[in-house]
Amino acid sequence: xxxxxxxxxxxxxxxxxxxxxxxxxxxxxxxxxxxxxxxxxxxxxxxxxxxxxxxxxxxxxxxxxxxxxxxxxxxxxxxxxxxxxxxxxxxxxxxxxxxxxxxxxxxxxxxxxxxxxxxxxxxxxxxxxxxxxxxxxxxxxxxxxxxxxxxxxxxx
Length: 156
Fold this sequence. Notes:
The chain is mainly beta. The protein has helices at 28-33, 43-49, and strands spanning 3-6, 16-19, 61-68, 74-79, 81-88, 91-96, 106-112, 121-129, 133-140, 143-144, 149-155. The radius of gyration is 21 Å and the shape is elongated.
């Protein structure tokens, strides 16, 4: 009916109704950059910001990590991962910086060594599967192994 719900930053009074049309819609470039905090974003612009096409829903990655699992475990880059716990050979705990809403998330992983062509490697769940941590096991032909490159993404 020409109104939209609004809230001001730091406003403790909750949401209010305001006449629509008072704001500027973010451009595709602004949605993709994610740096403009004043323009409005529409569902289409949000989808463009995620670089998605089509009409299927978009589910964002909640956490991801690329780390070295050999020797001293070290995170190369990550999102929403605070640290890696080295549990034992081929066993690692991925600790989330911000907890998941529940433990019903899905994850996928890859593992290997730079330049290696060996196949039959896998990343499996192992131990803790909670809102604050995911334990994984890296396997090479049914044996736990510390690999040089381990990547894990978590979706919810």
